[in-house]
Amino acid sequence: MTQKVRVRFAPSPTGPLHIGGVRTALFNYLFAKKHNGTFVLRVEDTDQNRYVEGAEQYIIDALNWCGIPFDEGINKNERFGPYRQSERKHLYKQYADALIASGNAYYAFDTPETLDFHRTDHEAKGKTFIYNWHNRLKLSNSLSLSAEEVKAKLNAGDEYVIRFKSPQDETLHLKDIIRGDIKIDTNILDDKVLFKSDGMPTYHLANIVDDHLMEITHVIRGEEWLPSLALHYQLYKAFGWDAPEFAHLPLILKPTGKGKLSKRDGDKLGFPVFPLQWTDPVTEEISRGYKQDGYFPGAMINFLAFLGWNPGTEQEIFNLDELIATFELERVNKSGARFDPDKIKWFNHHYMQEQNDDELAEAFKKQHSELVDIDVNYIALVVGMIKERATFISDFWELTHFFFTAPNSYEEKDSKKAFKEDTATLMSELKNIIIHIDEFTVEALQRDIKGWITKNNIGFGKVMMPLRLALVGALQGPDVFDIMFMIGKAETVKRIEKAISTI
C-alpha cells in the first residue's frame, strides 16, 4: 500500500451513537492502525432539522471510552478542517456547478406537486417512478428546456435542485474489498439530487467532496450505503478524481437473527444498544449504556470485532493491539452478524479476570456505603478470591457481603439441610478447636479442623455445611477456610455462637 492510509468515521449528530456505529468506527480504527494510517472523525450535520444537542460530544466521549479515539477531527490535528459539514457548506456549490459545466449534472425545476403526481400515477399502474434517462426529457429541467428558458427561471429565482445525470446503457464494474466485484446496469439508476433547493448539498455530494479534499484512501461504512456505491463511483469519475477503495460492513442483526438491531430490541430484551448512557435533551428519557451497566470497554470492543469479522483461528480473546495486528478487511463476512447479549457477558466475565484487584476494589467500594470504613487492601483481597464468579462489579456484594458483615438470617432450606440434632454439639466442639489454634492461618485451620473430623470419624458434610451456614448465612461462597482466615478468629467464633443459638 503505497498511499498513506486515511480513513474516516462520519456519523450524524442526530442522537446517541448506536452500537453499529461503534463497530464501524472500530473497523476503521483497526484498519488505520494496522497500516500506520490516520483515523479521522467528521461530523455530518448538514440536516439541521435532525440535529440533537449534545450528540456530537457524546460521539467523541463514546470513542474515547471505547479506547478508539480519533487522530484527526474537531479540535484535534485539524489539518483538513473544518470537520463539521455545516461549517463546510460554502464549498459544495462550486463542485455542483462544475458538474453542470461538464455535462454530468443538470438543473431540475420540477415542483414537489409535479413529482408527487408522477409517483401516484406510477403507483396506480403498478410501477415505480424513477427520475432518469427514460423520462428526464419529459420533465422540467435544463436538459428539456432551452438555454434561454433555464436562464429565465434562474434569474426569476425559481426553486431548483441539481441532479446527477446518470448514464444510459452502460455497465458499471465496481469493486468492494469485502464483497468483491459488483456489476451495475446504469439503466436502473435514478438521477439523484446532489444539491437541494434550500442551498444545501445532499449527503452524496458532500461526502464525496469531503472525502476527496480530506484525502481519504479507504471508505469503510455500513451495508446500508451499498446502494449508493454506483453513484459515488460515478461522481469520482465525473470529477476526474481517483476513487478511494470501498468496504461495506455487514448489518448487525437482532438476537433472533432476523432484521437490523434496534434500540427497541435492547429495551425489550434488557440490554443496551449504546456505549454510554444517554439522556434525551427533549423528552429526558434515559437510555442505558454499556459503561454504566458495568461492561469493560475492552470486552465491548473484543465482542464488536467479532460481529462480522473472524481471525481465521480459534482465538476469541484479543486485546486492542492483537486486534490491530490480526485485523484484515478481507476476513469480514458479507452476511449479517447476529447480536448475542449473552456473548458480550461472556467477554466481560473474561475481562473481569484480567482486571487489577486494587482498581476493582476501589470501584466496588464506591458502589457500597457499607464499605466506606473498610480498608481497600482488605477489599482487594476479597475481590481477588471471588472475581472468577463475577461478570460485573455489581455482582460483588452478593458474592462477598459475608466478608464484611455477619449474616442476619439463615436460608431456611439450607438450615434444615445443614443443622441436625447433634449439630449444635459438634459446632461447640469445633468452636473450642478454633479458639485453641494459635497461628490462625488457612493451613493451620485446614490441618486442625480436618484432623479433628478424621480422628473422630465424623462425616465432613456434618461439620462443613453448618460451618459454612454460620459464616455465610447460606450454603454458598468460596472455601470456608479462606473465609475464616479473612474475617479472623474472633469473628469466626462469634458467628458460630450466633448460629448455634439462632438455629
Relevant terms:
503 residues; mainly alpha; Glutamyl-tRNA Synthetase, domain 3; three-stranded antiparallel sheet; two-stranded parallel sheet; 20 helices; elongated
Q: Mind explaining what this structure looks like?
A:
A hairpin with a 3-residue loop joins β5 (171-176) and β6. The chain is mostly helical and 503 residues long. The chain is elongated and about 110 Å long. Helices cover 44% and strands 10% of the residues. The longest helix has 16 residues, at 19-34. It folds into 4 domains: 1-72 and 250-354, Rossmann fold; 90-195, Glutamyl-tRNA Synthetase, domain 3 (Alpha-Beta Complex); 355-393, no CATH class; 412-502, Arc Repressor Mutant, subunit A (Orthogonal Bundle).
